[in-house]
Amino acid sequence: MTSARRLPQLPGLLPFLVPALLTGGGVALPLLYLLLRALEADPQTLRDILLRPKNLELVRNTLSLLLGVLAGTTLLALPLAFLTTRTDLKGKRLFSILLTLPLAIPGYVGAYVILSATGPGGILPLPRLEGYWGALLILSLITYPYLFLGLRAAFLGLDPSQEEAARTLGMGPWRAFLRAAFPQLLPALLSGYLVVGLHVLGDFGTVSLLRYETFSYAIYLQYSAAFDRVYAAWLALFLLLFTGGLLLLEGALLRHLSLARTGKGSGKRAKPVRLGRFTPWAYLLLLLPVLLALVLPLYALFHLASRFPQENLEGLWEALSHSAMAAIPASLLAVGMALPVAYLAVRYPSPASRFLERLAYLGYAIPPLAFALAWIFFSLKSLPFLYSTLPLLVLVLAFHFLAEGLGPVRGALYQVPRRLEEAARTLGDTPTRAFFRVTFPLLWRGAVAGGALAFIGAVKELPLTLLLAPMGYSTLSTRVFSYTQVAMFAEAAPFALAIALLSAAFVGVLLWSERRF
Amino acid sequence: MQMRRFLTLIGLAALGLASAQPQTLTLYSGRGQSLVDPLVKQFQAETGIRVQVRYGTDAQILAALLEEGSRSPADVFWANTAGALGQAASKGLLRPLGDTLLRQPQAFVPASKAWVPVTVRLRVLAYNPQKLKPEELPASILDLPRFAQEKGLVGRVGWTPTYSSFQDMVAGMIALYGEGRTREWLSAMKALNPKSYASNPAMLDAIRAGEIDLGSTNHYYVVRFRRAGYNLGLHYFKDGDPGNLALVTGAGILKTSKNLVAANRFLTYLLSPKGQQYFAGTVGEYPLVKGVVADAHLLPLEEALGKSPKLDFEKLPLDQALRLLRELGIL
Asked: How would DSSP label each residue in B165-214?
């Protein structure tokens, strides 16, 4: 009976298949074009490109930043996750929320705050931090929450009996933790590392403002300043190799680990660790990232905005509406594409639907500058009427942020009882009709959350917008970037503030929709 | 289908409106919005001609013009660099200008007669006056690496390899001294472990913040920083040195233009005393037309024009410069 129902009936599924395949194509096709474009070069040029001494420098820079940020985020996230789950501190829930908020600060805003607030004449009496250490600090501060959230969940699911067993074998608390508990945290650590790593590889705003040349920054420079598109295409391919390597490595390590893991949780909760005289230090550690990544940037932004020339407010409205005109349709489109992909994956699990879902996530994993370049070549070659238009920007933003919408939509789909849909089907509805009559009304909260995530992502987004926006179409994020690039810090402040406040509002929407699930 | 019909109607309506108002000028500007906007507003107020501006970098606009071809709505191309205008002229995009316009500027009128120079900027050396004295600074930019080594400034020199004026300066060096000597100079600069900045203000801000001590930039950036109350040093090399290269900005009228009268009026306005005064005063660039009140921060015009080497600014070997910068791993 069930197997008969499982069989996808094409006419009914078609409305889902078409958008799902489109989604796959939107991610895969441009990459193919990027490859074609890169291979267009004549052998001599190719040799020059591949043997440039610059490449080695870029590999070195990109790798050292990647490893540095992974180390930095670990140093932050591991103790923070431990303190907010396994200790007797007060206000652990509040701190967990506060410690997640730095996610809302875009990298280029962080870099901007460092540049404008430090050095002689800045509002902070600190020497100017830039280059590698500046990028390391900012990227660690804005990406550690990914790791923190995963580790927090892992700590909460830890089985304390193993640690206790280790203690009975005569180990001290630290050794017992390392030998018994730490291996159980590894999967969370690894998936966190993947997300942080993808962010570092894709980051453009931070490294470009703080002048640290990684692959992403080099792609932008080659494309925008030196008119060397073939080299830019090759750099994008190199970067994709990096990303692919990261994905494969994480997958392989995770598989290897999950074989070695024992069952999770025994229903027993670990006893909270008493911190005693360390309590004040623990609070200080919890406050530090909040101060550095939230309070300080906001203070600096307000301080700078107070020096802002009033007559530029007109430009603020324009940028705001430009951002909205790109981000609203992009987020609607992203959710519209996420629904069929998630639906197929949840209701008709098969290698094909899983593959589609992977593709959708790939659009997010591809470093944005490589993705933008791929779309530029693709549209110039096969969709010239789209090149350098707003619809193209909307489309590519939607493809990129599709993955952000996928999570909440999937979560909601799992919670909709399948039987409701089946009841509708027995009443003679096609799958599509059943979906819209029964499932969708229950899904909308997930769709709102997914849409909100995609929207704010699109508002904050910099590299895609910078490369794909029509000439002269400036949004909040490109305004912050261009003003900051020419050290006009006061002028950039209101635009950066607008982004920060929008992000904050969206976190509100998200918390609201999470609580009601 | 209906949507398409609807859009076509809207398009036709828009066309109708556009043709009903012949007095709308479309300007493609490679120069920044903050600089162009006030001048355009003044022009609109005085002439009643509406101006629509499309902003981008010179390279972006050139690409757009080539892509649009004969369908381009542009009337005027106003560019940051003589090189971009020279390219537009050699590709046959620009219409030759009349002598009334070309007679006005005191220098830099191109052989092609396809565009008119509007202002000129000079490359200069910006430095931290608390760290360095003006009399010890080198007389030629070619001696800058040796000077920096002697003063122990390794790691404390800035430059802007991705910025068009820097690339123009390297091209000027090639035109004057050939590729070999330019390569030597660039290698010697690289040995100083210089810090690359994406823009001149960011580099000058780094001098202000004590990150570096000197860097080659354009003169008006230093002027703006000084006007904002920051104490930055400004050094000219000896007359005719590529370190003082003149950077010519200018404007031309496109062959596709349907508004020749308005376009001519706009170019005339750029060269009028009012326009030139705006550039000298507010922007801090050198005017090219006589009769402008000199700004306290600027040299007298005659003296300024003598600083730069005399080259064909339309035909600087920019491609060669870019190739060299890439070969050395600077770009």
From this structure: HHHHHHHHHHHHHHHHHHHHHHHHHHTT-PEE-SSHHHHHHHHHTTS-SE
Joined tokens for residue A181:
């508990």
Q: Which of A57, A121, A226 sits opposite B162 (nearest CB)?
A: A226
Taking CA–CA distances from B67, the nearest residue in chain A reads: A384
What confidence score (pLDDT) does residue A419 get?
A: 81
Dist CA A285 CA B297 (whole Å): 51
Q: What is the pLDDT of residue B18?
A: 44
Q: What is the 3-state secondary structure (H, E, C) of B213-269?
A: CEEEEEHHHHHHHHHCCCCCEEECCCCCCHHHCEEEEEEEEECCCCCHHHHHHHHHH
- One DSSP character per residue, A194-232 reads HHHHHHHHH--HHHHHTT---HHHHHHHHHHTS--HHHH
Q: What is the mean pLDDT of residues A459-477?
A: 90
> For A124, which residue in chain B has the nearest alpha carbon?
B209
Contact A52 B329 (CB under 8 A): yes
Chains A and B form CB pairs within 8 A to the count of 78
What is the C-alpha end-to-end distance of chain A, expressed in Å?
31
Closest CA to B318 of B236, B239, B247: B247
Mean pLDDT, range B295-315, rounded to an integer: 87
Q: Measure the CA–CA gap between A209 and A487, rounded to whole angstroms.
A: 10
With an 8 Å Cβ cutoff, are A224 and B57 in contact? yes
Cα(B218)–Cα(B169) distance, integer angstroms: 10
Asked whether the beta carbons of A96 and A150 are under 8 A apart, the reply is: no
Q: What is the mean pLDDT of chain A?
A: 83
Q: For residue B119, give the 3-state DSSP assignment.
A: strand
Chain B residues touching residue A131 (CB < 8 angstroms): 195
Q: What does the pLDDT read at residue A516?
A: 42
CB burial class (10 A; 0-12, 13-18, 19+) of residue B180? exposed
pTM of the model: 0.82
- Report the alpha-carbon distance of residue B297 to residue B287 in Å, rounded: 13
- Distance from C-alpha of A399 to C-alpha of A336, rounded to nearest angstrom: 11
Report helix, strand or coil for B120: strand
Identify the closest residue of chain B to A384 by CA–CA distance: B67
d(CA A2, CA A471): 55
Q: How far is B287 from chain A (nearest CA, A)?
A: 24
Query: Which of A456, A360, A447 shows the shortest CA–CA distance to A408?
Result: A447
Helical ranges in A87-181 per DSSP H: 92-100, 107-117, 131-156, 160-168, 173-176
* CB A276 within 8 Å of CB A461: no
B127 membership: H or E segment, kind and range: strand B115-127
Q: CB–CB of B308/B122 below 8 Å? A: yes
Convert the pLDDT of each residue in B69-118 to its tens digit: 888 889 999 999 898 899 899 999 999 999 999 999 988 999 999 999 99
Above pLDDT 90, what percent of chain A? 25
Contact (CB, 8 A) for B127 and B225? no
Average pLDDT over residues A346-361: 81
d(CA B240, CA B141): 11
What pLDDT digit, counting tens, does each position of A253-284 carry?
877 776 554 555 445 666 787 788 888 899 99
Task: State the Cα–Cα distance between residues A340 and B173, nearest whole angstrom.
Answer: 60
- Interchain pair A225, B331: CB under 8 A: yes
Chosen for mutation from B162, B187, B221, B231 (greatest number of chain A CBs closer than 10 Å) is: B162
Residue in B with minimal Cα distance to A120: B209
Sequence-distant (6+) residues with CB within 8 A of A188 are A150, A151, A153, A154
Secondary structure (3-state) at A385? coil
Q: Which residues of A touch B198 (CB under 8 A)?
A: 208-209, 211, 485
CB A142 within 8 A of CB A292: no
